[in-house]
Design a protein that fits this description.
Shape: elongated
Number of strands: 2
Number of helices: 8
Largest sheet: 2 strands, antiparallel
Distance between the termini: 28 Å
Length: 176
């Protein structure tokens, strides 16, 4: 049988081993910031094109209306054109709204994540139970077992492992 305090203390020591260096975290922060900035630019272009497509569909409805008034097309043709265009407008408007509602505060979230990883052990100790569970689940996606005063798991989250890896491969050393 183990004591919860002892298990927690050992876990915090394990987390301390996962602390990422400030240099590595800063490099990831800058890379992600650039990536999300490019994503937002691309997203803005897509939203703009969708707006233009919506306007084209609206113009088609007006043109069809004028053709009907001038008796160049009958009411059935007008209704068919209007129905098709309205469906296109609704689909585009829905997709556009979805893209517009995408959270643009990624940089803030990334910054928060960097700070947490800099001092993961401290962040864990100060967190409430729900956040502790999220931290554990984020780092260890599979079952985490405490046995014989040691923790074991099948794997660690590959992103966490990559970020917290002590540059051993770059230096030609094995990870501790």
């Amino acid at each position: 049988m183990f004591k919860a305090d002892e298990a927690n203390e050992i876990f915090v020591k394990e987390l301390r081993k996962l602390r990422a260096s400030s240099e590595v975290l800063e490099a990831y922060y800058e890379a992600l910031k650039e990536k999300f900035s490019q994503y937002q630019k691309d997203n803005s272009k897509v939203i703009q094109r969708m707006g233009e497509e919506i306007k084209k569909h609206e113009a088609r409805i007006k043109n069809a209306q004028l053709l009907m008034i001038d008796q160049d097309i009958d009411m059935a043709e007008y209704r068919s054109i209007k129905k098709t265009c309205k469906e296109g407008i609704n689909k585009l408007a829905k997709e556009k709204a979805q893209l517009e509602s995408t959270d643009s505060d990624y940089v803030e979230y990334i910054g928060y994540g960097v700070e947490v990883l800099k001092k993961i052990d401290y962040s864990y100790e100060k967190a409430d139970l729900l956040v502790k569970h999220k931290i554990i689940g984020s780092i260890y996606p599979e079952k985490l077992i405490f046995e014989n005063k040691k923790y074991r798991t099948k794997r660690i989250n590959s992103v966490v492992e990559l970020i917290t890896h002590k540059n051993s491969k770059l230096l030609g050393h094995k990870k501790d």
